[in-house]
Write a structure and sequence with these properties.
Chain lengths: ~500, ~180
Amino acid sequence: MAPLTDIIPQGERVDRHRPCPRFVVTADAWQHTVSEIAAGRATLLGLWGDAAAAPTVHMAMIEDATGAMAVVSLACPDGKFPSVGALHPPAIRLERAIQSLYGFEPAAAPDLRPWLDLGFWDLRHPLGARTPAAAAQPPYPFLPVEGESLHRIPVGPVHAGIIEPGHFRFTAGGETIVRLEERLGYVHKGIESLMTGAPIARAARLAARTSGDSTVAYGIAFAHAVEAATSIDAPPRARYLRALMAELERLANHFGDIGAICNDASFSLMHAHCGILRELVLRAADGCFGHRLMMDRVVPGGVSADLRPDGAALIRDTLREIQRRFPRLVELYDNTASLQDRTAATGILQPELARQFGAPGYVGRASGRNFDARKTPGYAPYDRLEFTVPVLTAGDVDARVWIRIREVEQSMALIEQMLDRLPDGAIAIALDGTGEGGEGLGLAEGFRGDVLAWVRLDGPHVARCHLRDPSWFQWPLLEAAIEGNIVADFPLCNKSFNCSYSGHDL
Amino acid sequence: MRRTLFEGLTRRPLTEAPPSPDDAALAELAASLERAARRRLGRSLSIRQVDAGSCNGCELEIHALNNAFYDIERFGLRFVASPRHADVLLVTGPVTRNMREALERTYRATPDPKWVVAVGHCAADGGIFAGSYAVAGGVSAVVPVDLHIGGCPPSPLRLLQGLISLLEPGPASHNSLTAR
């Protein structure tokens, strides 16, 4: 196969964009690149706007097999750019967000309804021209559904449980869901706007609070981007400690998810026992790094907290306890027919859709997509550690549970290796601070999937930062996976995806 | 499954601070909460959690209150699905402009007497998100707040302590019990 840059026909390469190239292209080249992505030559990683210097849209892509990445940029001085979603549906919500946040219009787009902007802000296009909001927005037009005896069930934004807010509009025929339409944006906090002009340290704290359950992953992705932009490398010990934290985060979240999925099938025994395992991991994290979720421990340049002296022993004790308890829970899951009855063949995501959307994390891996940012493009220290990426093809709730179970096993093995090989030395190096203003792209594999961070620095400040949660490419797939299932199985399907609202809404 | 269930019957519970006189904080808190809850609310307090814009970190720790270590229900505190069943609204996050109306409506749907507990640094004043075009501010910018529990996010233990101080006000928050 030709290298990734071959699908970008012509373009001027931008200096100081690392680690992958960025090309400023013409509208024709943009269209050609989009058609290549739509044909499956590369996977869309992100699509975002930039109004800093001149109105521009950026599109990042990756070749799954090789991990080669590239960014293409198109100037849109008239505030228009050729729609990506018209050829490649995974981009539809991303370009709707660009339109709402920047005011750049995707020409000939299949869907121009606002996204994230629910009509409650004082201004329009907060990352663009920032014009005062005019009169109230018209009511949001949900997609039409036609047919006899259909009924609609509106749910949210406030849900019945300890869950983030979002709106789900179900259309059902009897018990069967014929369409789910999501409306998100309720927890939009304007993170990218707050980052603009912020010192790097403050921007890192904002990144760490984009999705609290993935705070380590966001920390790593943002650090990767800043370190690429400034051409520095975090010291080896910091790389290991980051990965150690990332695997603890993965363990804690997977235990929580496995239990919660079973709980949504009313099998509370698994929930109770998985809750114990999750708590053990969080306590170990607190004992090792001084924070249960390890927030703000990953910083650009390294890590802010070293492993406490008794940390390795604490983690080993915790792993032993997990090894004692977890296999029996797996057996319990595997041997409980009434539970399997709910999870098997429920909420099937077709592999073709997973591939098209570049479905991140367990959602993709349960539907045949063999991708893990720790392998491709890969980053230290994972390149020196042994682990496998589990892949299944059934695509149902059961498969998403099994991927998590296998990933728990892999994470435990990774943690053992890291504790054995943890290098000595510094845990951080100072950022130079007054660089000439580079740009960097960072990718990190969180428990949910790959988190993308892109920054342009202006000396010690962030000129522009874009963060793309894996949920952007998972939420739309939930709509597809739920079709034809019964309403009562929605919580089960939703939990098996466990998309982030906050990470998506930004 | 039989073995797991049987062990659950025979093994000591994992729950923190069993009610032994020489145990630490949680046992004392358990006793004090039981007295206060019985006096004021017939031993039960129903909590409705509302995420008004949180990063979801606070939700994770609120979830942990239900695990075997903290077991919040032994104090008579339980999470309910509807604001109409609630005595307490446990609100997290800076209140985003997009959630403001939903929070107001949830508050109005909660019957009196009711208390509002704002959880996390963001809920106090917007925290790191204060000043954004998309953020209305802390919870008190939208609905009256009876108690703030700080932390980013607060640990489950701190959450328990906070919920208890709502029932047993110290001198600093003496008036926080005035039901609205």
